[in-house]
């Protein structure tokens, strides 16, 4: 069920920079690593790559699910403070996974296993290996959190119990819901396959269901001991009995490398269950692990990171003692009440602290998988103070281009409401007959045409060149274009951000100013009138930041970076080789190629308003897709044409 406007506003206000920074500071203190970064997303998952922690506070929409919150409070013996305050529920939904992922950073190996691991040959085997490791690591880090730390158990308990209640909302008890979740639906064979193909497909499907049933059972048994697990099918029961003790011992093994040896031993035992090549349906298991990217075969976030987990001595588990015997948790209520009091103070501070003040984050080239040219370069990212004094000037700009804005709003709206004709086959009635289905015993040989909406869910990051050459009419044109673009996209609720980038000559410094963020406040737009032109650019490095920013801040399925520039990057400082052509061209081209290959398209707008095509020719050496703008006054129209083309033809 979609979130109501009230809950959407609560979530938007919660996911501010202040709250994110608090969680990042907490993670850095807990892990004792100053380089840890925390990001909020809205993609229903939480994970870490060993350096970045990705959190969705609205995971499973738990904060808006009062029934699940009340059930969790009941199971943990708490009062109804959390279920009666969505902000508190969001805070716990952010802090608890932050604790969980921070413990992974401390105690788990990253990556989980080497790419040369012989058991990981093929996608299916690799996935099974990572899922076994995932179950073990989740159980272990929760045990470590209880054994090593005095003040984390209640948060880990809340996360496990609350998400359990939210994930399995079905008639009857939570236990019954778990039982229901283990049921599988038989796949109907496709009509146009012969009997042999159907039998082969059926065997693969059966094998895939068996290995997932085994993993699903082991996750339930190990991670949810407070629920009675129904006995598995006879076909997997023997494997369960052979590996049950290995899972239990691995969950209290304090050495990461040894835990992975347990993973290998379990894999070898269940290997006969693993199909050679099959699609494994892991949604049921993921609902119990609440995110699996932390242990995925490939890194789930930008860049690469390698670290070895610390050793730990385990004296207890999350729900039991070290031997698996349930034990009382009298202190949970007191600790949770103390936590809630701290969170309430934080909530009041957030409500009384002005959010208009400038906020700055610092990155370095080492935070990205860029070339060594940028290793010592600092990136200063600023959300500037909202300049409400520019309200009137902004409105004057809007009024100046009102006719153009309204026209583009209408045109884009027409495209967004556009439709596509699709052919539906195997119908009992329709407008025509498909001869290839004439043998269908159910007489489903008709076809018909239907109209369907086919608009991609896309978000745009406009990265504007802020160098000195963009001065004069170009600066004014870029500023007015930004206002026009923002007004039109905002009207249609299309996610977008507008960022200015530059590099300071003589200093190892790149600055990014976020005028409009993906989750912008209404008044952020006034800052667009402060767009300036000075210094140079270091576009290769800025692109890597842009990739991370759009992939962590935008919730859209398709994400597109649009570069607006009037020439090639140039920057010089003592700490690095001069970033000038041909070095800057090759480096930026390499960065663009890598980012595009990883799935984020880049389109460059070349500003050639001097009657020549120099910029276009230069940018073609860097970007595969370049659009020439020979009149700065037509820049807005060309950008909107690009956006329209994306939605109209799905070019994302």
End-to-end Cα distance: 28 Å
Oligomer: single chain
Low-confidence stretches: 168-193, 297-304
Structural class: alpha/beta
**Biggest sheet, open or closed, and with what strands and sense?**
8 strands, mixed
Determine the fraction of residues in helical runs and give it as a percent range: 40-55%
The number of strands is 16
Overall pLDDT? 83
Beta percentage is 5-15%
User: Using only CA atoms, what is the Rg?
Assistant: 27 Å
Order of strands in the sheet with most strands? 4-5-11-10-9-12-15-16
- Our count of domains comes out at 3
Overall shape: it is globular
Map the helices and strands.
Elements: H1 5-14, H2 17-31, E1 37-40, E2 47-48, E3 52-55, H3 66-76, H4 86-107, H5 123-148, H6 153-167, H7 174-181, H8 195-223, H9 234-250, H10 256-270, H11 283-289, H12 331-352, E4 359-364, E5 378-383, H13 391-400, H14 402-416, E6 420-427, E7 432-433, E8 446-452, E9 458-465, H15 473-491, E10 496-504, E11 509-516, H16 539-553, E12 558-565, E13 571-573, E14 576-579, H17 583-597, E15 602-607, H18 614-620, E16 626-629, H19 635-649
Parallel strand pairs: 1-3, 5-11, 9-10, 9-12, 12-15, 15-16
Antiparallel strand pairs: 2-3, 4-5, 6-8, 7-8, 10-11, 13-14
Helix pairs in contact: 1-4, 2-4, 3-6, 4-5, 4-6, 5-8, 5-10, 8-9, 8-11, 9-10, 14-15, 14-19, 15-19, 16-17
How does this structure look, described?
- The chain is of the alpha/beta class and 652 residues long.
- The chain folds into three domains: 5-182 and 204-344, no CATH class; 387-409 and 456-649, von Willebrand factor, type A domain (Rossmann fold); 420-452, no CATH class.
- It has helices at 5-14, 17-31, 66-76, 86-107, 123-148, 153-167, 174-181, 195-223, 234-250, 256-270, 283-289, 331-352, 391-400, 402-416, 473-491, 539-553, 583-597, 614-620, 635-649, and strands spanning 37-40, 47-48, 52-55, 359-364, 378-383, 420-427, 432-433, 446-452, 458-465, 496-504, 509-516, 558-565, 571-573, 576-579, 602-607, 626-629.
- The strands form four sheets. Strands 4-5-11-10-9-12-15-16 form an eight-stranded mixed β-sheet, sandwiched between helices. A three-stranded mixed β-sheet has the order 1-3-2. The chain has a three-stranded antiparallel β-sheet with strand order 6-8-7, with no helix packed on it.
- It is globular.
- It starts with a helix and ends with a helix.
């Amino acid at each position: 069920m979609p979130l109501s406007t009230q809950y959407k506003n609560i979530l938007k206000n919660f996911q501010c920079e202040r709250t994110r920074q608090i969680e990042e500071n907490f993670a850095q203190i807990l892990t004792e690593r100053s380089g840890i970064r925390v990001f909020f997303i809205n993609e229903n998952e939480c994970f870490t790559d060993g350096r970045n922690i990705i959190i969705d506070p609205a995971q499973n929409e738990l904060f808006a699910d009062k029934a699940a919150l009340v059930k969790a409070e009941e199971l943990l013996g708490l009062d109804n403070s959390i279920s009666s305050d969505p902000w508190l529920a969001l805070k716990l939904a952010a802090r608890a996974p932050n604790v969980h992922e921070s413990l992974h950073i401390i105690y788990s190996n990253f990556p989980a296993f080497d790419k040369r691991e012989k058991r990981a040959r093929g996608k299916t085997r690799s996935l099974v290996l990572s899922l076994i490791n995932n179950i073990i690591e989740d159980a272990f880090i929760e045990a470590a959190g209880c054994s090593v730390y005095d003040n984390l158990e209640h948060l880990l308990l809340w996360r496990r119990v609350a998400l359990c209640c939210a994930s399995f909302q079905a008639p009857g008890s939570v236990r019954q819901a778990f039982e229901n979740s283990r049921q599988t639906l038989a796949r109907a064979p496709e009509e146009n396959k012969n009997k042999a193909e159907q039998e082969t497909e059926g065997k693969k499907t059966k094998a895939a269901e068996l290995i997932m049933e085994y993993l699903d059972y082991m996750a339930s048994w190990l991670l949810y001991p407070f629920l009675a697990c129904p006995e598995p099918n006879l076909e997997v029961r023997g494997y369960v009995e052979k590996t049950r003790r290995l899972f239990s011992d691995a969950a209290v093994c304090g050495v990461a490398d040894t835990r992975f040896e347990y993973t290998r031993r379990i894999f070898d035992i269940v290997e006969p269950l693993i199909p050679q090549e099959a699609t494994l349906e892991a949604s049921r298991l993921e609902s119990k692990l609440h995110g699996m990217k932390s242990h995925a075969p490939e890194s789930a976030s930008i860049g690469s990171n390698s670290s070895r987990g610390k050793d730990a001595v385990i004296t207890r588990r999350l729900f039991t003692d070290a031997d698996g015997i349930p034990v009382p948790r009298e202190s949970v209520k007191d600790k949770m009440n103390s936590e809630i009091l701290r969170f309430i103070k934080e909530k009041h501070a957030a409500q009384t602290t002005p959010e208009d003040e400038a906020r700055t984050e610092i990155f370095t080239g080492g935070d990205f998988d860029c070339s060594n040219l940028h290793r010592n370069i600092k990136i200063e990212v600023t959300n500037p103070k909202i300049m409400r004094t520019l309200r009137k000037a902004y409105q004057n700009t809007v009024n100046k281009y009102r006719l153009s804005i309204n026209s583009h709003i209408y045109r884009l709206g027409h495209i967004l409401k556009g439709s596509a004709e699709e052919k539906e086959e195997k119908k009992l009635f329709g407008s025509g007959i498909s001869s290839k289905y004439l043998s269908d015993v159910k007489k489903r040989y008709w076809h018909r045409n239907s109209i369907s909406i086919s608009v991609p869910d896309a978000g745009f990051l406009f990265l504007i060149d802020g160098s000195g050459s963009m001065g004069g009419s170009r600066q004014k044109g870029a500023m007015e274009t930004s206002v026009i673009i923002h007004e039109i996209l905002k009207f249609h609720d299309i996610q977008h951000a507008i960022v200015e980038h530059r590099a300071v000559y003589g200093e190892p410094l790149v600055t990014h100013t976020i005028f409009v963020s993906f989750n912008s406040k209404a008044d952020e737009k006034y800052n667009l009138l402060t767009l300036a032109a000075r210094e140079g650019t270091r576009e290769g490095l800025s692109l890597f930041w842009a990739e991370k920013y759009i992939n962590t801040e935008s919730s859209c399925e398709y994400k597109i970076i649009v570069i607006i520039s009037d020439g090639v990057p140039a920057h010089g400082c003592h700490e690095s080789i001069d970033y000038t052509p041909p070095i800057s061209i090759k480096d930026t081209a390499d960065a663009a190629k890598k980012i595009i290959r990883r799935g984020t398209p880049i389109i460059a707008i070349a500003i050639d308003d001097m009657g020549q095509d120099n910029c276009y020719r230069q940018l073609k050496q860097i970007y595969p897709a370049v659009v020439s703008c020979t009149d700065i006054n037509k820049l807005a129209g060309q950008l909107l044409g690009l956006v329209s083309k994306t939605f109209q033809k799905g070019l994302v």
